[in-house]
Structures are given as C-alpha cells and as structure tokens.
Amino acid sequence: MPIRDTGVTEKTEELGKEETLFGSARGESTLAHLNELATRLKKSLIAYVIALVLVSSLPDPLSPFGGTNTLFGYNFLLMSLIRDAEAAYIGPNFKLLAISPADPVLAFLDLSMVLALVVSLPYIFHEVYGFVAPGLYQKEKRAVRKYVLPFAGLFALGGIFGLLVIFPIVMHILLLFYAPFGLANLISLDGFVNLLLLVPVLTGLAFTFPVFIIPLVEMKMLSAKQLSSSRKWVYILVPLGVSIANPDPTDLSSIPIIIPILILFEVSILISKRIEKKRMKNTLIGV
After folding, report:
1. Domain check: are 194 and 53 in the same one?
2. Which of 19, 49, 64, 113 could covalently link to 59 via disulfide, CB atoms 3.0 to 4.6 Å apart?
3. Does residue 245 lie within any of the structural domains?
4. Quick check: 89 and 171 in contact, CB under 8 A?
C-alpha cells in the first residue's frame, strides 16, 4: 500500500486555497471596477440628456412668445440662433432651403446635441477623472488638473476665432461660386448648420496642441531643442493639414488659421525653454 506524503498534500491544498482566494479577490475587484464604470457612464449620460432637454427647450430671452417664426406660439432659442446666423453669415441675398421635410428637425437636433455636449462636458470629464484618478500617481494627477483649464481656454478661444473670423470667410468664398454657375441663391439648411458646427470645433481643437506639447517637455520626453529643430517640418505640415481639413476649396481661409497655430507653436517653444531653464536652476541649487 503506497505511503501518502501528508506534508506535501497539505502544502498543495494550502496553495490551491490561496490561488482560489486570490482569483476570487481579483474577480471581485474587476467586477467592482466595471460596476463603478457603469455607474459613472450612467451619470454622464443622464447629465447629457438633462443638458439636451434644457438646451433644446430654452426660449429666446428677447422674444419668448409670439411672432411669425414660432412653433405653437413658442420661440425656441436655437431657432433664433440659426436665423441670426443666417442673417450674419449669408446676408439678405441668400436664403436657407430645406431639401427634405426632415431638414429643419435634423438641423435643430444637430445644434442641440453639440451644445448639450459642450454644456455637459465638464461634468462628464469629472466622472471620467474620478474613475481613472485612483490609478494615477500624484504627479500625474497634478498634471491633469494643471492642464484642464488651459485646454478648455484654448479650445474656447479657437472655437470663437473659428466662428467670428474663419466661418464668415469660408461662407463668403463658397458663395462666390454661385453666380458663375448660375445657381439660385439657396443654401441647404442642414449643410449650413453642419458647417457652422464643424468650423469652430476644428479651429478649437487646432488651438489646443500646446497642451499636449508642454507636458511632454515637463516629463523630459521632448525638449525645446527638438521642437526648434522640427520647426521647418511644422511650417510645412501645419499648412498641409489645415488645407486638408478646411472645407474651403480655395484655401484662402486657411491663412488666418495657419498664422495663429504657428504663433502658438513658437509660444510653446518659449515656454519649453523656460521650463528647461527652471529645471536646470533647480538642479544646480539642489531642489
């Protein structure tokens, strides 16, 4: 009859129990993270829906009720904004046209959804940051908090620049081609609203690139010397990228976009040099 090694058996059983407990704890931890993610996504979705309802139902503060351009006697703010944009950007010689019966509704929904996202984005970011923050080092948390406001500020600045400077130029150039082709002075409502939303978003994102460059310099993954040496490529690739993204086929409106982007690049180099100078000074004094 074989002799059973009780010591080895007991150790094997203990290891098996530890592995089972470890696997169970890991599974519970994963499930807890998934539950937290689902909760935060649900809160973000609820915040977005609330913002969508509020934005789409706001009345025009100057004339909330009555008038010729009302729906059931109610004057929606977004409809007033579209009419104001029509008057400001295409003038009295052109009129917006609904190509399909659904165009007014789709234009209203497009504008509502984009503005609702802008309004609810701070809360959505708060939820996303709350989920990933436990996995970040303290230094990384400080970096995220440090660059949130600059990102928002640059995006807002770029969006306003696109809306007030770039979009009027784009519309003016595009409308010049109507007369040579003998076209009626009618513009698709859906196309107009989509372009009105696209241009500020593109210019806003284009203005935010320093927020991605400066942290790399602070983390020593990029240097001011590397930025300076890549200047010639930046001066080639930026105009090329703007030309591709710009809805203006003549690229005349690209010039007002390219100039501030290149200025921001030069400012990024100056800030990078200051960061490196401060870092060297702290190293010398032993901080």
Report:
1. yes
2. 64
3. yes
4. yes
pTM of the model: 0.76
Please indicate, yes or no, whether residues 97 and 237 belong to a single structural domain of this protein.
no
Helices marked H in 162-230? 167-175, 178-181, 189-207, 209-218, 224-229
Using one digit for the tens of pLDDT, what is the confidence trace for 38-84?
A: 888 899 999 999 999 998 888 877 776 766 666 666 677 888 888 88
d(CA 194, CA 199): 9
Pairing between β-strand 95-97 and β-strand 186-188 as defined by DSSP bridges: parallel
Kindly state whether residues 50 and 180 are assigned to the same domain. yes
In this predicted structure, the answer to whether residue 12 has a pLDDT above a threshold of 60 is: no
Tokens of 182: 């003998």
What is the structure's pLDDT at 215?
84
Identity of the amino acid at 185: N
Residue 146 and residue 44 share a domain? yes
Q: Which two tokens stand for residue 116?
A: 């609702």
Torsion of CA 219, 224, 227, 231, to 10 degrees: 170
Q: Is 187 helix (H, G, I), strand (E, B) or coil?
A: strand
Are 160 and 200 in contact, with CB atoms under 8 Å apart? Answer: yes
> Measured between alpha carbons, how far is 91 from 265 in angstroms, rounded to an integer?
36
Each residue's pLDDT tens digit, 197-244: 988 988 998 899 888 888 888 888 888 889 899 989 999 999 898 888
**Radius of gyration of the chain from its Cα atoms, rounded to whole angstroms:** 28
Place of tokens 């970096």: 143
Distance CA 183, CA 176 (A): 11
Count other Cβ atoms within 10 Å, centred on residue 168. Answer: 15
